[in-house]
Amino acid sequence: MVEFAVWAPIPERVRLDVDGARHTMDRCEDGWWRAQVSARPEARYGFVLDDDTVLPDPRSPRQPDGVHDRSQLWTPDPDAWSDAGWAGRSIEGTVIYELHVGTFTPQGTFDAVIEKLDYLVDLGVDFVELMPVNAFGGTHGWGYDGVLWYAVHEPYGGPDGLVRLIDACHARGLGVLIDAVFNHLGPSGNYLPRFGPYLSSGSNPWGESINISGPDADEVRRYILDCALRWMRDFHADGLRLDAVHALVDTTAIHILEELSTETDALAEELGRPLSLIAESDLNDPRLITPRDRGGYGMTAQWDDDIHHAIHAAVSGERQGYYGDFGTLEVLATTLKNGYFHAGTYSSFRHRRHGRPLDTSSIPATRLLAYTLTHDQVGNRAVGDRPSQNLTFGQLAVKAALALASPYTAMMFMGEEWGSSSPFQFFSSHPEPELARATAEGRKREFAEHGWDADEIPDPQDPETFLRSKLKWDEVDDENHGRLRRLYQQLIALRNKHSEFADPWLDHLRIEYDEDRRWLVMHRGAFAVACNLGTGPVDVPVTGELVLAWDEPTVGAKSTRLPGHSFAIVNKATVGAD
């Protein structure tokens, strides 16, 4: 016998459909409906609410035929795992590799990712971060329009494929993070409002907000918490990246992020291995990463877009949109030194004050992620162009040195390490013609309002937009691409080898710069990371034993000459330097 249960306080009647046979369900006082029915282990089932339409289970473990069809029973097979010896690790101070399963390889599956894991190990990364793998409408997309959060996207390989991937990662010493979206639901296949009050009266840029603090919110919160814990318990994930948590509007005394942090720590203790929660937040609010016993939410870490903006604008010269307050070396130095640039300061992009200062004496830099590229920072550009399509390899090398030699937890986006020429464009495959048309027209209209020619904006529904975004693995060993990839390997190895690069305290970080001559130096203990962001050679007042460089610097008795768009890391201790 199998116990089937569903929270559905809205309908007057709920029936269970198992392999085409209908069964009565008992209504409980808490809004749950329950029934015990004999069912085969892989039975197809769904719920019939008032009318005669079979809907998938809101907590569906598997959707073999897409998000509009019946669910399928699935439980993890204990014999599928071989990672009993995996002790896990916290993400703090590590290097994270963000990838999209559908475009990381030509095949676009979990099993195809497994074939590339040895490459990632050789690169030196510590964690793989998967963009959303929950079930969403269509065959391909970014994954942020999920509607059945508990199920795994079938075209990637379904839940069994995800088990194989995570087990293979652990066998190679790689941790796995899963990008989870709890701030909105996608437009295709969202049947949750028919079951209960999952949505609130508010909205955010991606749709209606989730009801986490209104009437009947307790069960909705439980729906979110149980889903989050499921990825870490049933699929052995080592943590989650939580999408746009600033869109989780919670007016209760205990914020849902604090509640999730508490329950994640409890699960970590039960499992005997560390579990990490990383917030994507637009707020620059240290409360997210402040321990709970000090009034914070107790999350492990947070994406830091200020660091991205400061590095990218300084190196590239871009100033449009939210880059308007960034671009100078003074801003870059301030951001690297303080974690946030906007910390109670005026934001010209937002037309108001933004952020709050980070207490750098008590919160280590490893609770912030530094990166020069993410899926957002390339994919949300009008044509999805990467920095590698606009910058020199020297500029890409400088960006890498600034991020990977900084005190922060580091992250990179797939293909960044070799300067991939593939764009990462916004793509979707909504099967509903009206939704498909609205998505394409909305994308063109959005960027046309910002001055782009609408004809230049890729159609998200065009299969070629998806195919263009796939990585070109034949580039990896090309002369320039291969040289950049080897540099990433060397930077990561240097980061792991010397304790100075593991120092997480920003109070120990010293930065010098010359705005006019376009050089900046990060002092990491005995090491100096000297960067020339200008086009011509420049003498930087640091010297020592050359450890790593892009192009050929000239190390003199008192200074180091750097070619344009290059960097050098020197060990000052060899000459008794400060």
Q: Helix coverage percent of residues?
A: 25-40%
- Average pLDDT figure: 96
Radius of gyration: 25 Å
What gross morphology would you assign? elongated
Q: How would you describe the overall organization of this protein?
A:
- With 578 residues, the chain is α/β, with parallel strands linked by helices.
- Among the domains are: 2-55, Immunoglobulins (Immunoglobulin-like); 510-575, Immunoglobulin-like (Sandwich), CATH 2.60.40.1180.
- The protein has 14 helices and 30 strands.
- Strands 9-10-13-16-17-18-21-22 form an eight-stranded parallel barrel.
- Helix 7 links the parallel strand 16 and strand 17.
- The chain is elongated, with a radius of gyration of 25 Å.
- The model has no long low-confidence stretch (mean pLDDT 96).
- The active site is at residues 243, 280.
- Residues 98-495 form the Glycosyl hydrolase family 13 catalytic domain.
Summed up, what is this model?
The chain is an alpha/beta fold and 578 residues long. The chain has an 8-stranded parallel barrel with strand order 9-10-13-16-17-18-21-22. Helix 8 (305-316) packs antiparallel against helix 9.
Which key phrases capture this entry?
alpha/beta, Immunoglobulin-like, 8-stranded parallel β-barrel, 5-stranded antiparallel sheet, 25% helix
Question: Topology, please?
Answer:
Layout: E1 2-7, E2 14-18, E3 21-24, E4 26-27, E5 32-37, E6 44-49, E7 54-55, E8 71-72, E9 95-99, H1 101-104, H2 110-114, H3 117-123, E10 127-130, E11 134-136, E12 146-152, H4 158-171, E13 175-180, H5 192-195, E14 199-204, E15 207-210, H6 217-233, E16 239-242, H7 256-271, E17 276-279, E18 301-303, H8 305-316, H9 329-338, E19 345-347, E20 352-354, E21 368-370, H10 375-379, H11 393-404, E22 409-413, H12 433-448, H13 463-468, H14 479-497, E23 510-514, E24 519-524, E25 527-532, E26 538-540, E27 545-549, E28 554-555, E29 560-562, E30 566-571
Parallel strand pairs: 9-10, 9-22, 10-13, 13-16, 16-17, 17-18, 18-21, 21-22
Antiparallel strand pairs: 1-5, 2-3, 2-6, 4-5, 6-7, 6-8, 11-12, 14-15, 19-20, 23-24, 24-25, 25-30, 26-29, 27-30, 28-29
Helix pairs in contact: 6-7, 8-9, 8-11, 11-14
Catalytic activity: hydrolysis of (1->4)-alpha-D-glucosidic linkage in 4-alpha-D-[(1->4)-alpha-D-glucanosyl]n trehalose to yield trehalose and (1->4)-alpha-D-glucan
Protein name: Malto-oligosyltrehalose trehalohydrolase
Main location: cytoplasm
